[in-house]
């Protein structure tokens, strides 16, 4: 097993995740089996599930190393083959008190697995103050010095910067950070994060890994990287827009829904549309907001009604108030007996608990009691829309994270009104997928499909939402779940390129499609 550790310095949010993902992408394009681990450098103890003998961890660094080695061997590919490389993203910033046990664990780890199997990438910032316009290396020098003082010497220094790193700056970093100039990699701002793997490839990162870790890779053109380049180029030439209203509780911090946003982006790119996300606080749609802040209320509803599609993260019983409300609000709208429909989390005494805690969950104990991990969902209907989007398979395996579920005793009331539970767990006890009859796309899932979405392979539930929002779902289904031929996309990209050329010739800086359509 080969290990590549990605650390970060100077500031948090420097881009370690993008670097780790990009490194994994270009290595995977070489035909290697790659896995990844994300470490949040906090030691969390769930005292509610500990025995009296477990309240002291004497060798935390040993425990970290053992966990990393165990997780690295878990297959993440469909063929079940054990990974050859594990890319580890260590969260936080070098020097943080929270990350000290993890830094020390990896200091020991590099000797345990031997140098030829361990490599460290350090991601650092090269600021460029607007007053001078000069790229500054001192923050990176200090960060690398601190990392080396803790026992880790970076093999590659990836410099985050606004513009490409100048040769003199690269040589200065090389001199004072004890690496060759070729080991200083420039990661400047680009129009799309999907261009970062290509940026690393151009600077010889794969060649360096092959030599440093003795990887069995043939240096030849790689099909996956070619597809990736086509996708990255296409992301810059999207003409049509699609808007999705994201309704949730934590919309003031977009990072709260990072995986959801990425899944939407993957699907939008697949249908050649530029994504616009409209964040809406679920509380702003409530009647109480109309009384207290009518302007905010009407603005929220205007956003919702002007969007092409609506997404409520959380499914229909997953953690979070907004998810539970889908099933609850539907029940309340049906008839009088269900006007008091609620969740046992909100009202333990409800006569019609549409959403309940799972039987194995202990009320009052929040830690370590979720239904976690990849689980199988069986489709119960051959006409299910989501089943078709998944490729007409009998079952899917998706990742779960919840402690509440739709009350199975009340499902027949829902189905009488057209809300069909088309997917269930293996035992047929838990409701996993719902679809509304006679609606172009009203789908809810118990699991988190965004966790398995990829740029070249978007998540089917999100893909279906974007297709429906763009008015292309029925056409997609009629064609046997196939998109337009690839050559058509190339023609569109070429036309856009010609338009760009024409704009430059006419010294225009805006795109007027109608003005130039007759030319082509």
From TrEMBL:
GO terms for cellular component: cytoophidium; cytoplasm. The keyword Coiled coil does not apply. One of its GO terms (molecular function) is CTP synthase activity. Keywords: ATP-binding, Glutamine amidotransferase, Ligase, Nucleotide-binding, Pyrimidine biosynthesis. SUPFAM superfamilies: Class I glutamine amidotransferase-like, P-loop containing nucleoside triphosphate hydrolases. CDD domains: GATase1_CTP_Synthase. It catalyses: UTP + L-glutamine + ATP + H2O = CTP + L-glutamate + ADP + phosphate + 2 H(+). It comes from the Eukaryota. One of its GO terms (biological process) is pyrimidine nucleobase biosynthetic process. Residues 253-460 form the Glutamine amidotransferase domain. Pathway: Pyrimidine metabolism; CTP biosynthesis via de novo pathway; CTP from UDP: step 2/2. Residues 2-55, 56-215 form the CTP synthase N-terminal domain. Its EC number is 6.3.4.2. It is an enzyme of class 6 (ligase). Belongs to the CTP synthase family. Catalyzes the ATP-dependent amination of UTP to CTP with either L-glutamine or ammonia as the source of nitrogen. This is CTP synthase. It comes from Mastacembelus armatus (zig-zag eel).
């Amino acid at each position: 097993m080969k290990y590549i550790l990605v650390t970060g310095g100077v500031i948090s949010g420097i881009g370690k995740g993008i670097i780790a993902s990009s490194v994994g992408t270009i290595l995977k394009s070489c035909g290697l089996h790659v896995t990844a681990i994300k470490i949040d450098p906090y030691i969390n103890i769930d005292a509610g599930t500990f025995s009296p003998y477990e309240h002291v961890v004497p060798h935390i660094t040993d425990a970290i190393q053992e966990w990393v080695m165990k997780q690295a061997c878990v297959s993440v590919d469909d063929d079940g083959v054990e990974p050859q490389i594990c890319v580890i993203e260590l969260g936080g910033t070098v020097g943080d008190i929270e990350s000290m046990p993890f830094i020390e664990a990896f200091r020991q780890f590099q000797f345990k697995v031997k140098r030829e199997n361990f490599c460290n990438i350090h991601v650092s910032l090269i600021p460029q103050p607007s007053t001078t316009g000069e790229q500054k290396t001192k923050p990176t020098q200090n960060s690398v010095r601190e990392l080396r003082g803790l026992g880790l010497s970076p093999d590659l220094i990836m410099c985050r910067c606004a513009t490409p790193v100048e040769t003199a700056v690269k040589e200065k970093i090389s001199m004072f950070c004890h690496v060759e100039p070729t080991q200083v990699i420039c990661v400047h701002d680009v129009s799309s994060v999907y261009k970062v793997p290509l940026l690393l490839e151009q600077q010889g990162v794969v060649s360096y890994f092959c030599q440093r870790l003795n990887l069995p890779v043939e240096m030849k053109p790689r099909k996956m990287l070619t597809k990736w380049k086509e996708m990255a180029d296409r992301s810059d030439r999207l003409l049509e827009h699609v808007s999705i209203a994201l309704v949730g509780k934590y919309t003031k911090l977009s990072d709260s829904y990072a995986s959801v946003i990425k899944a939407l982006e993957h699907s939008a790119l697949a249908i050649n549309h530029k994504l616009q996300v409209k964040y809406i606080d679920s509380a702003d749609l409530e009647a109480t907001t109309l009384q207290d802040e009518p302007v905010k209320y009407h603005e929220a509803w205007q956003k919702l009604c002007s969007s092409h599609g609506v997404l409520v993260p959380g499914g229909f019983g997953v953690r979070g108030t907004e998810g539970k409300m889908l099933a609850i609000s539907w029940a309340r709208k049906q008839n009088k007996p269900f006007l008091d429909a609620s969740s046992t989390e909100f009202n333990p005494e409800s006569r019609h608990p549409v959403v309940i805690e799972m039987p194995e969950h202990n009320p009052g104990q929040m830690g370590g009691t979720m239904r976690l991990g990849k689980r199988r969902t069986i489709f119960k209907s051959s006409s299910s829309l989501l089943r078709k989007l998944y490729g007409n398979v009998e079952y899917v395996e998706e990742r779960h994270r919840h402690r509440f579920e739709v009350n199975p005793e009340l499902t027949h009331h829902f189905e009488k009104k057209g809300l069909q539970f088309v997917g269930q767990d293996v035992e047929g006890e838990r409701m996993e997928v719902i679809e509304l009859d006679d609606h172009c796309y009203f789908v809810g899932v118990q699991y988190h499909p965004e966790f398995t979405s990829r740029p070249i392979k978007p998540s089917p539930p999100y893909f279906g939402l974007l297709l429906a929002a763009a008015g292309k779902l029925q056409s997609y289904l009629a064609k046997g779940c196939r998109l337009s031929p690839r050559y058509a996309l190339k023609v569109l990209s070429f036309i856009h390129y010609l338009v760009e050329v024409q704009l430059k010739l006419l010294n225009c800086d805006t795109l007027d499609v109608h003005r130039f359509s007759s030319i082509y």
